[in-house]
Each structure stands twice: as C-alpha cells, then as structure tokens.
DNA sequence: GCTCGCCTTGACAAGGTTGTCATGCCTTTA
DNA sequence: TAAAGGCATGACAACCTTGTCAAGGCGAGC
C-alpha cells in the first residue's frame, strides 16, 4: 500500500501554510524564491504527489485531455496518442481515450462522457473531426477542442493539418525527375477531403512540368487495398500503360504492387509505385514503398499544445491553426524509367 | 456552457435525502422500489450526471482503468483499447492510456502516475506485462492489475491468455490435411514466450501425424518482416525446399511471400504460406494470408471484467485467469500440394 | 404484547485541493 | 513623513460525493 502523503504534511515539513505549497505546485507567482525552494525540497523528501481528484474538484482543471476517434487505422490512432501524451506529460495531464461507434448516434455518446468527466480539452481525429453533431455538443458543453486534419469548415475551430497539396505535388515532381512522363494516378475516397487535395497536387505538378494529365491514366479508388488492386488492373493490363503510378494512399499502392507482381512487372525497373501516408505496410512489402510521411505524432503534440496553452480560448479572434511539414520518404519502389 | 446539476437538486426534486439519491445511483440495496423510481425520474428530468472527481475523492473508486503499453504493434494496442472500453462503458468507467517508454526506467514512469491518479485497475500488455519492476510498483501501490498474454510467472497475478500451443498445432494440422509433408517453420523472437509455445505446437502436430521435423527446415526469425524474408531465402532457394512454410507471425509470413514472389513461386500452388496474429497486413497482400486470429478485443474485455468485478481481490487464493479461444483464419495463401 | 432484528432513510463528517479574501510588511511616491 | 500600492502569506470556505452511524418503522417470534 502506498502511503498517501497529503499537502498538509508537506506544509508542516516546510513550515508554511497549505496554500503556499499549493502555489508552489502550481507555479504561481508571488512566492519568495527561498520559500519556493524549501517547499520543493519537502515535496521531494516526502515524494508527495497531488491528488488529481481533489484538485479537479476544488479547481477548474481536470488534468485530463480526451482523444475521440472513430478511425479505422490503428497506426494512425496510436501515433496520435503517442504524440498527444508526449506533450501532456510535461504538464502533468493524462490522456483519456474514447473510441466512438460511428454506427450509432455519435453525439449521444459524447454528451454523457463530457458531462461526467469534465475534460480540459479534446482532440478530434478524422473522420469524427468533421461530424457537426459532435462539434455542436462540444461547444454546448464549453469544452475546448482541436481538430486534426479537418476537412470542412476550417474556420470553425482550432486545428492542425498538413499540406496535402504540396506533398502530392512533390511526390509527382519526384517521379518526373526520375524521367517519368506517363504517370498514372489513383484517386482516394471522394468523400474524404484529402482525396481532392492530393489530386490537385498531382495535376498541378504535371501541368507545371509540361506533362499532360491523361484521363485514361487517372482512376477512381476508395482508399482500400482492393480498390487499388482493381484500379491498377485497369491501368496496367494494356500496352500503353504508365511507367509510374502514384496512389493516393499506401493501401492502394500495395494493391498496385500486387497487380504488378501478378503481371510480372518489375518494380521499379518497369513500373515505379508511390503511395501516401507511410503506414506500417509500406515497409512490409518488397520492394519497400516510396511514400509521404505525415508527421502524425507531431501534429497530435501540436494539438495538445494548443489545448494546454489555452490558445483555443480566443475571444472573437479567428481560432489558431498550425500547418506542419510532411516528409517525402523515398524507398525502393520508385526508380528511373527503365 | 453546461448547467452543472448537483445531487442536491435531484434530492430536492425527488423529495429524499442526498444520501438516498447516492444509493440509487450506485445501485445499492435497501431502497424502496417506489423511492428508487422517483429518484431515477428526477435524474432523468434534470439530466443529472455525478461528478466523477467528487466521487473518487469521497469514495474509494476513481472510475478509471489504465492501459499500460509498450507494444510496437498499433493494431494490437488499438484492439486492446477497444475491447477494454467496451466492458468499461457498461460500468461507467473510463480508459486512461499510458504508453511507456521502454528505453527509460519504466518503473519510474509508472510510480508517479499511479500515485497522482489512483486508478482502480490496470491492464498490462506484452511486453510490459513481464516487466518485474512494473509489477512490483503496482503491488506496492496496491493497484489491482491483469496481464494479457503474460509469459513468465503466470501464478503471480490475474491474467488472460490464448492457447498458442494448440493454435500452432491446428495450423500445422491444417497444412498436413492439405497434403503437405515438408512443412518449414520460422521461429519467433527467442525472448518472446509465444515463440516457444508456437514452435511446440508445430512440433507436436508434426510428430503426431508422423511427419519428421527436419532441422534444416526450421529457421530462427525475430518476428520482423526482414527476418522472415531472410529465413525464407534460406528455406526456399534450394531444390529440396518445403512445400509449405508456417511462420510464427504475420510479418515474417509476409517476408516469405515477398521471397516467393521474387523466386516466382506461385502461392499457394507451389508454396503454401501461413502466419499467425491476423494483423491488418494479412489482408493487404495478394493472395491474402492464412493465419490465426487472436481474440484480442475479447481478451481485453475479459481483463477489464476481472478488474471491474473485483475478481483480482483474492485473499490467499490463486489469482484468477481466463483462457480464450483462437480462430483459424483460412484464406488463399494455403492450398493443396500442387 | 414485547423484544429483536431487518429494512429504509437521513444527518453529518470526511476526502485533499484550490479560490477568495484578509493581513502584515516592505517599497515607492507625493 | 504620510499615504498608496505591491508582494508574500495564511485562514477558511467551497467543491460534490460517499462512508459512517444513528434512528425510526415494521414484521416475526416468543
């Protein structure tokens, strides 16, 4: 059993009042350096840790940040958690995870948990971050929130995102620099905002480099392995096939690789393949996939930071936002035209 | 802003004392049905939700279950969270996630968080679940915990696991039933307990079916894609290669598939490949991988259940444990001997 | 009819921290 | 020199619920 040391004992040992100990713990101003030091020594000596329940009952803060998700990708979710925790720990905050069941009434699930356990802030990942009902509840309850890679209504709240357009532009430019002219493209799920942005980057890069965007070299996909596989079959099983394919995400790119294998097309000698997201699967394939890495952990950390510093509390001002840099990860699936 | 309704107002509206409302909320016995109903109506009318901080300060429960992990597999971690949450929600508990940095002093990370935020229980995933220092801290702090798939010292605490031996046995039997005689095996990381169990299942099945275990058809791997790839190169790049390979996990099995592709061996016509774990990657490969599914969500739910029902509070008795069933997932990567 | 004991309920303290307000001292300003 | 204001600190209430203990009512057994 742990000996529960209270603030009382720290006060007694350091010879000050409870309130002063509290001030030191909360880094409040107006405490003599001398006193502050003495208290800190007592805290260390007794191995005292404030009781979080008492804290949040008495004060306004709960020392809890929520992460709501409804995201099918475990890798994404875990990265968000790791990034958020990294920042939260510095301030003594904890992370509470709330998977949402998108099949049901999401807003109805959110309301009780917000009500019971007053979190100091919530991080929303796609696609929940675009669920208007959830945002409404959050605002009604007065809980600050930050959205990660939101798709719609950017001005509505604080958010953190990455420049999908430029990333897709640079990946396309990378393929062009390898000598490719006919670069196929597989679009993502049409209802996912990133799809349009990535396509836009591809088109812009092609045009700026004087490459025509051939209608018959652009296929619609749905972000799934299968849809990538099928799109690749249509693109590759004919004589005038492209020498490179840029898929809007890794899963679809893996589908392209599978078709290439099946058709006995050497990657990257005969066909270059590029993906987007740098999922774990990108490394679990041979050859390893060239892709774009989203700085997910950093984005989540930035979101936590906005929450912890109170940057979301803007009166009338536009909500703050952060735009983080992506990283082009060039592996073995792309190479010069053979 | 949400109107903060207190238990006081519920008491006033229903015409009973605060304490009686509390009794109803906590489903305590000895409350007249009539009274209970009246209180419940008032709760509903006011949309009252108890304040969790006040609850845990006054009472013993914190309504928080922790999940500690240090697991490189996002899919695993997410499944654990989903499984645990499913059970926790039923009882109004929340999940607090604490990724541990295995590079540092893990026990030192655990102590403060346990001390600050008194969780009612903790779920430990591999490999943290076998970290003796962490278990020591947990016990010193008097926090109940349940381990998932622990490897050592099973009797030390409550735990939930799956029968790895039998699963490996059945996968091997499946391959044998398809007509395979020379079945290669790739072992997992030697310091991971599951490795030995899975190998044991393989050996037992081979022997019971009168198949010899050829030393040169068993390779050491480390659970990584690369190690599977390299092991497969050794197994396959020779005339007397096996007609089937059973890898101790999916990542290594995917490595095998990559080598097969490279060597132009048709899967499953020329070579059958089986994995273990049913990771997302198993479906993102062509042909899709035959593997063993661990009921991770169910295991986590069982762990949460042990915690919530107080089953871990055994006085002198042996700690409780649960053994869950696995599932053989037969997909396209295994087939009859060609 | 009386005692015993169970069921039902309520009054009150406790739980550990923060917020508010008051106090005393020291420094600056007129 | 006196007044004003800032700094450092402490006393005490407040936060909202649960645990403890006592009390009243009622039925069963003798």
Q: Taking strands numbered 1, 2, ... along the chain, how are they ordered across the largest sheet of chain A?
A: 2-1-3-4-5-11
Total number of strands of chain A: 12
Radius of gyration over C-alpha positions of chain A, nearest whole angstrom: 25 Å
| Largest Cβ-defined interface | A-B, 53 and 53 residues
The helix fraction of chain A, in percent, is: 40-55%
Report low-confidence residues of chain A grouped into runs of 5 or more: none
Q: End-to-end distance of chain A, in Å?
A: 69 Å
Q: Give a quick account of the main beta sheet of chain A: strands, pairing sense, barrel closure.
A: 6 strands, parallel
- Say what oligomer this is: homodimer
What is the H-and-E element order of chain A?
A: HHHHEHEHEHEEHEHEHEHEEHEE
Strand content of chain A: 5-15%
Query: What's the overall geometry of chain A?
Result: elongated
Structural class of chain A: alpha/beta
Number of helices of chain A: 12
Mean pLDDT of chain A, as a whole number?
92
List the helices and strands and how they pair.
Two copies of one chain form a homodimer.
Chain A: H1 7-14, H2 18-25, H3 33-46, H4 52-58, E1 64-69, H5 74-90, E2 94-99, H6 106-116, E3 121-124, H7 132-141, E4 145-148, E5 158-162, H8 164-177, E6 183-187, H9 193-208, E7 218-220, H10 225-236, E8 244-247, H11 250-262, E9 272-274, E10 291-293, H12 296-308, E11 321-324, E12 327-329
Parallel strand pairs in A: 1-2, 1-3, 3-4, 4-5, 5-11, 6-7, 6-8, 8-9
Antiparallel strand pairs in A: 10-12
Helix pairs in contact in A: 1-2, 1-3, 5-12, 6-7, 8-9, 10-11
The structure holds a DNA duplex (30 and 30 nucleotides).
């Amino acid at each position: 059993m742990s000996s529960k040391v209270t603030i009382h004992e720290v006060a007694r040992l350091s010879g000050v009042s409870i309130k002063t100990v509290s001030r030191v713990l909360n880094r409040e101003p107006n405490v003599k350096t001398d006193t502050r030091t003495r208290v800190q020594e007592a805290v260390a000596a007794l191995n005292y840790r404030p009781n979080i329940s008492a804290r949040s009952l008495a004060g306004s803060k709960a020392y809890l940040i929520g992460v709501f998700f409804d995201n099918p990708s475990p890798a994404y979710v875990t990265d968000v958690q790791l990034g958020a925790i990294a920042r939260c720990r510095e301030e003594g905050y904890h992370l509470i995870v709330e998977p949402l069941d998108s099949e049901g009434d999401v807003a109805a699930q959110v309301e009780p948990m917000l009500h019971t356990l007053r979190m100091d802030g919530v991080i929303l990942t796609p696609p929940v971050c675009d669920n208007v009902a959830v945002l409404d509840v959050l605002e009604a309850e007065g809980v600050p929130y930050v959205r990660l890679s939101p798709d719609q209504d950017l001005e509505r709240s604080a958010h953190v995102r990455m420049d999908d357009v430029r990333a897709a532009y640079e990946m396309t430019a990378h393929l062009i620099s390898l000598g490719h002219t006919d670069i196929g493209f597989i679009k993502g799920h049409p209802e996912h905002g990133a799809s349009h942005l990535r396509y836009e980057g591809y088109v812009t890069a092609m045009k700026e480099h004087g490459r025509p965007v051939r209608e018959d070299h652009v296929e619609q996909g749905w972000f799934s392995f299968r849809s990538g596989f099928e799109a690749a079959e249509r693109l590759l099983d004919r004589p005038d096939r492209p020498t490179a394919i840029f898929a809007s995400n890794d899963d679809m790119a893996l589908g392209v690789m599978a078709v290439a294998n099946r058709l006995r097309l050497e990657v990257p000698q005969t066909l270059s393949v590029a993906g987007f997201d740098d999922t774990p699967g990108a490394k679990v394939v041979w050859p390893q996939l060239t892709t774009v890495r989203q700085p997910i952990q950093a984005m989540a950390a930035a979101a936590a930071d906005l929450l912890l510093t109170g940057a979301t509390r803007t009166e009338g001002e536009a909500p703050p936002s952060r735009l983080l840099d992506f990283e082009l990860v060039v592996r073995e699936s792309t190479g010069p035209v053979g």
